[in-house]
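in:
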């Protein structure tokens, strides 16, 4: 979960310096998943990566943790690409 802390720090630093950071990330994940719940974005990623569920997000089996990290980066790439494409389309 140190990756979660890193991304949260990135987001906070971005906001402090006027950059978008992960603005809209949680909402995008909810839309991507097609279902909302009361979980923050890290658990939204787990819902997508591990649709069968998990027992303890702080103690995932190594194969589940590897899957979650892989899916997190895929989702981040997709989110940032979509946001960039939307920004380019709005300025055109």
């Amino acid at each position: 979960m140190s990756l979660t802390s890193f991304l949260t720090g990135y987001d906070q630093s971005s906001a402090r310096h006027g950059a978008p950071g992960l603005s809209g990330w949680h909402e995008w994940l909810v839309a991507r998943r097609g279902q909302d719940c009361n979980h923050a974005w890290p658990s939204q990623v787990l819902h997508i990566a591990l649709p069968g569920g998990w027992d303890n997000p702080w103690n995932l089996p190594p194969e589940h943790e590897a899957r979650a990290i892989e899916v997190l980066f895929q989702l981040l790439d997709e989110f940032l690409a979509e946001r960039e494409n939307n920004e380019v389309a709005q300025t055109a």
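note: Helices lie at 2-16, 25-33, 41-49, 62-91.
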